[in-house]
C-alpha cells in the first residue's frame, strides 16, 4: 500500500451529495449533509417491507424509482431537530401526497429483515401502510430504523466496529465523474449518476497556474484506501460490487432468477429496467477483468465503499459540503490489490 505524499493541493472535490431517506425511492440532492456514525443524517432511515417484514427494494419492485421524497431544507443543517410540524413528504404518480411526521413513531414492529440482518423497526402506521400497499399493489408497510435498540454492523472482515442503518453494505459510497464519463463513452445511451445511487459524487481537480479544471481520471477511486474530505478521514474499505451475474438464457443482468433486477439497469425516471449499463460494465469492470488472479464471483464493480474513521460528536462541525476538497492519503497501485 502506498502512502501518498502530503500536499496542499486536493486530488478531487465533492460535486454532489445525495441522500436517500427511503431506501430505493428517489434521491434528494443537497448542498451539505451532517455526518453521523451510520452515514449521512437521514440517509436510508426508512424502508418499505412486505407482509413478511422483508425489505422491498427496486431489485424486486422497480416502480419504487417513481416515489419522490422531500425533507425540510433545514433538515440538513447540523444540530437541527424536527418539531411537531416537521414532515417527510412522499409523492408518486396517481397517488395522494403522504406526510410522515419526522418525530419518531411510538409503535415498534418486530421481524423486519434486510439481507443478513433482522430486528425491530419503528412502524409509520396505517396511513403509510395503505399508501404503499395501494401503490405497489401488495401488502406493504413503511418502517424506520430503530436506532434506540438496534445495531446493524458492517462486515467485520472489511471494517470492524462500524454500523449502518438500511444502506446495503456500508455507510458511504463514493463515485467519480471520470468513471461515469468513461462508462458513458461505451454505452449507446449515456446513463446518469442516479442509476448507481452513490451518496458522494466527486470530480478531480487539476491545478495549473491557478486554473482549476474539472476532469477525472477514470476509476481512480478504486485505488483509494484512505481519503480526507474537508477535515474528515474516510477509509476506502471495499470496491462496490453491483451484482452476482445469473443469465439463464435471458438478456444479461436484465432479469434474474425470481424476477430480481439489478438497480443500475432501472431507469430512475420511468421505473423500467433494461440491460445497460450492466452489459458494458461486465466487459470492463468484472472481477474477471479487474482481478483475474483472484477468486471469481461473477461480480462487477463501480464505486468505492467508505466508512468514516473519525469520532463524530454532536456540535463539532460534522458537515460535508459540495465543493469540499478531497485529499488522497493512501492508495494501492491497482484494482487487483484493492479489497473487493
Features:
340 residues, 7-stranded mixed barrel, 5 helices, mainly beta, single chain
Explain this structure to me?
With 340 residues, the protein is mostly beta strands. It contains 5 helices and 21 strands. It has a 7-stranded mixed beta barrel with strand order 2-15-14-19-18-17-21. A 5-stranded antiparallel beta sheet has the order 7-6-13-12-11. It has a 3-stranded antiparallel beta sheet with strand order 5-4-20, with no helix packed on it. A hairpin with a 2-residue loop joins β17 and β18. The longest helix is centred in the middle third of the chain and has 11 residues. The protein is globular. The two termini are 15 Å apart. About 8% of the residues have low confidence.
Helix content: 10-25%
Q: Which structural class should the secondary elements be placed in?
A: mainly beta
| Low-pLDDT windows of residues | 206-216, 244-259
Radius of gyration: 20 Å
Spatial separation of the terminal alpha carbons: 15 Å
